[in-house]
Amino acid sequence: MLEVAAHPLLDLHAFVTEFAAPLEKLQVSAELQLLLRANSVPQFTASDSDRQAVRDLLRFGGFKPTGRSKPASEYLRKAQTEGTLGSINLAVDACNVVSLHSGLPISVVDLDLAQPSFRVAIAETGSSYIFNASGQSIDVGGLLCLFDQQGPCANAVKDSHRTKTGPTTCRALSLIWSTTALPGRGLVAAEWYHRLVRDLGASVEVVWP
Known about the structure:
alpha+beta, globular
């Protein structure tokens, strides 16, 4: 279901989660809510050099992962520190918890809103998409992205608004954007992610690697 273009730095981990019911009917566990808090015990230790390694991954194709285009994992850390990181839904919360603690950016898309087939590759210059309900767009040229039949729809900075999870989501595709510069980090993060969602009654199917 997923094609991944050759990349010297990418250590991608991707899986499909099928939830027991639409997200609007599922409660976020106390464990997830606790792990989102600023005083939660870190599951990993993400150093400044780790953050640089992630930025180097995003920079490889010519993208500049700075300012408003920094990795999503860095946004999460800032929001947690400022006390503005709240619960959204089970799918997003699990994604945010693992991203926050591992230091790795993660995408999660609603499989029933996206259009197969899927591939991961560096977006061409001039590529862009809308990432929020306000209609703001992000230029993704030079950035590793998930593509469906309509074009790029997710990456390590901001996911597309058209494929975001919502109340009716039942199936999601998650992508952990890890790097070969952090050996084993992506696998450990993926295994923890799998456990979190399975403990909440969801099933998991690994699609990459």
